[in-house]
Amino acid sequence: MIGRLRGTLVEKQAPHLLIEVGGVGYELIAPMTTVYRLPELNEEVVLYTHFAVSETAQQLFAFHSKADRELFRLLIKVNGVGPKMAAGIMSMEAADIVHCVRSDNVSALVKVPGVGKKTAERLIIEMRDKLKAWQGADALPHVSPELVSVSETAPASNQLIAEAESALVALGYKPTDASRAVAAVMNDSVNRAEDLIRAALKSMLPA
Predict the structure, then answer these.
(1) Which of 3, 12, 143, 194 is least crowded, fewest Cβ atoms below 10 Å from its Cβ?
(2) CA angle 35, 187, 173 (to 5 degrees)
(3) 36, 64 in Cβ contact below 8 A?
(4) How many Cβ atoms sit within 10 Å of the Cβ of residue 71?
(5) H/E stretch holding 28
(6) How many CB atoms lie within 10 A of CB 177?
(7) DSSP label at residue 1
(8) How far apart are the first and last CA of the chain?
(9) Do the Cβ atoms of 12 and 41 come closer than 8 Å?
(10) What is the DSSP letter of 170?
(11) What's CA 81's distance to the chain center, in Å?
């Protein structure tokens, strides 16, 4: 079982990554909260992994911390929540997910692609006790819900917009919704696709 990888970040097209370890390239799927924390290409990265096997696919999911991997493993134990949906839910920060569960915030969870009202309600019911056993919300690092600030040194480009829209579509959003969300938060100071994706997701996934 592969539990952790230390290697070079070769490719990054959210949510898909390619990490080279000892001459072997590992294809990974990472939730956006992990993508935000990745270094630049060709730099070393350490990721914790979960190997998911189904009748149709074998996928390796990657996380920047053990805590995020544990949250992912708790999510996939919920009836009706598979690895892809769990990774989508983790487009929200862990602290925000815990807050949604503890405050019975169904409306925030159903904004995640593929999560219907019944699934959100079931997730809240099944996760409430599991999160108590896992760790308290106060133990989680909280990320400000405000849109990220970005550098003002480089102009925006069509490539950034295309990368951001592609990532949102890969997460399950409709192309028109992805385009609308990216356009709503785009400005001339954005110089990283990750910043644009994060801002667009935050506009669609309020806590």
Answers:
(1) 3
(2) 50
(3) no
(4) 25
(5) strand 24-29
(6) 16
(7) -
(8) 34
(9) yes
(10) H
(11) 15
Please identify, in words, the CATH class of the domain defined by 66-139.
Answer: mainly alpha
SS3 199: helix
Please give the single-letter amino acid code of residue 195: D
- Alpha-carbon distance of 111 to 151, in angstroms, equals 29
* Rounded CA separation 54/65 (Å): 24
H-run or E-run covering 44 = strand 44-53
- pLDDT tens digits, 4-61: 999 999 999 889 999 999 999 999 999 999 998 999 999 999 999 999 988 888 999 9
In Å, how far from its chain's centre is CA 101? 17
How is the chain split into domains, by residue range?
4-63, 66-139, 158-204
Phi, psi angle pair for 72, to nearest 5°: -60, -45
Measured CA to CA, the distance from residue 97 to residue 142 in angstroms comes to 11
Q: What is the mean pLDDT of the chain?
A: 83
User: Tell me: the pLDDT tens digits for 145-156?
Assistant: 333 333 333 344
Tokens representing 6?
Answer: 């230390």
| CATH no., domain 4-63 | 2.40.50.140
What average pLDDT score do residues 119-136 get?
Answer: 81
What CATH superfamily classification does 158-204 receive? Answer: Ubiquitin-associated (UBA) domain (1.10.8.10)
Distance CA 31, CA 46 (A): 15
Length of the chain (residues): 207
Alpha carbon 140 to its chain centroid, in Å, reads 16
